Amino acid sequence: MQKTNFEFEVLVGDDCSTDGTSEIVSQYSKKYPDIIKHIRRQQNMGCLANFMDLCEKASAGYAVFLMSVSSPLILFSKE
Asked: What is the pLDDT along the chain (79 residues), one digit of tens a residue?
């Protein structure tokens, strides 16, 4: 519901989640296909491989990562 004056994308690296995340993200990615990209793994890659793959797929110059509720926010520049 938040409004911005810039384009952004949301990449979700679903690493075989079992808590219902996949279903929720799938619904949102269908509703907002130009913004939300649901990258559903067929097999668990682990945190680091999932993170590195998302870094490669990110199209913007800057990225913010939220790994989980308990993990810190990570901000980096691809430039």
From this structure: 778 888 888 889 888 888 888 999 999 999 999 889 999 999 999 888 988 898 888 887 777 777 665 565 556 566 5
Tokens of 33: 């296909």
Q: Quick check: pTM over 0.90?
A: no
Contact present, 30 and 22 (Cβ < 8 Å): no
Q: Which of 44, 50, 46, 43 is nearest to 11 (CA)?
A: 50
Q: Which domain holds residue 21?
A: 10-77
Task: Tell me if 78 sits within 8 A of 63, measured CB to CB.
Answer: yes
∠ Cα 12 47 30 (to 5°): 15
Nearest Cα to Cα of residue 52 among 11, 10, 22: 11
In a domain, 61, yes or no: yes
Into how many domains does the chain fold? Answer: 1
